[in-house]
Amino acid sequence: MTDIFISYAREDKERVRPIVEELEKRGWSVFWDRKIPPGHKWESSIGIALEKSRCVLAVWSEESINSDWVKDEATVAKKRGVLVPVVFDAVDQPMGFRQIQAADLSDWKNNSSHQAFQDLIGAIESKMSSADQPVIAPTPTPGPDPEPKPAPAKTLHYRSPNLKAVTQPALVVERGWFSKIKPKQAAIAVAVVLVVILLFVGLIGRKQEEIPAEQAPTALSTPAPLDAEAVKAKQEAAARKKQADEAAKVKAVVRQKAAELKARQKADSLRQVREAKLREKNEAAQLKARQETDARKQQAEEAA
């Protein structure tokens, strides 16, 4: 298993090399060679390294933000939860990755004591420590104790002058006051109990008929389980909505910046017009003052 996988544009290879050297000094194995050996496919070399790595660095630069390879590899790392973004140039991360804080190495001069580089090392250690934690299976929760089965009901056996044998359920039969009841009285008691039971059952049936159809439980009220395609379509729709919301936010920011620029230009234009008018007014006043001075001087000379 590779410790760190670095995703970058091939134009940034020499800029990535110092990072690789610093990481290897700390004893980590780094996969950053983009060449696929002859006879191998992407899935069997770069793809396996990407899936098995404990941490993935996505290096964003002016070249890599337009690279589909870097975006795809960063997407895989993001889904696995092992992505650590790194920014080389003064660029924004692609859409879908801007919510993840990136290590800014735009002014890094291969100095291991650089604060942003130290933050990067800390983020890598955190990702790899999370990847090393074992998965603990949940402890099964003991279920409730089974309910005790009710004891079988005892039955009453007696003879009646009109019937050869009668068998009816009874609470306590073997001994006690019930054993002294005459057969005729027992038959009447049983009939009364049956009538009460029938009345109770009829009352329950009437209550059930009074329940509105919309409240009655039916098989159609059970929601059908979503299949995998429906879940996938729902997730894709949510992703598209999120992208559209982010694009709308970007457009709103651009419109706001354009409005601010237009307002500043208008204010500068008005200020320049006011300054020009003020200069013309001052120049006219100075010219008038000079003319009046010359006129007084000329009158004084004529009077002399």
Describe the protein:
The protein is of the alpha/beta class and 304 residues long. Helix content is 52%, strand content 9%. The termini are far apart. Residues 154-175 have low confidence and may be disordered.
The tally of helices reads: 6
Calculate the terminal CA-CA distance, rounded to whole Å: 111 Å
Could you give the count of β-strands? 7
As laid out across the biggest beta sheet, the strand order is 2-1-3-4-5
Shape, per Cα inertia axes:
flat
- Topology pattern, helix = H, strand = E: EHEHEHEEHEEHH
Q: Percent of residues in helical segments?
A: 40-55%
Q: What structural category characterises the helix and strand content?
A: alpha/beta
- Average pLDDT number: 80
What about the largest sheet? 5 strands, parallel
Rg calc: 45 Å
| Low-pLDDT regions | 154-175
Which percent range describes the beta-strand content? Answer: 5-15%
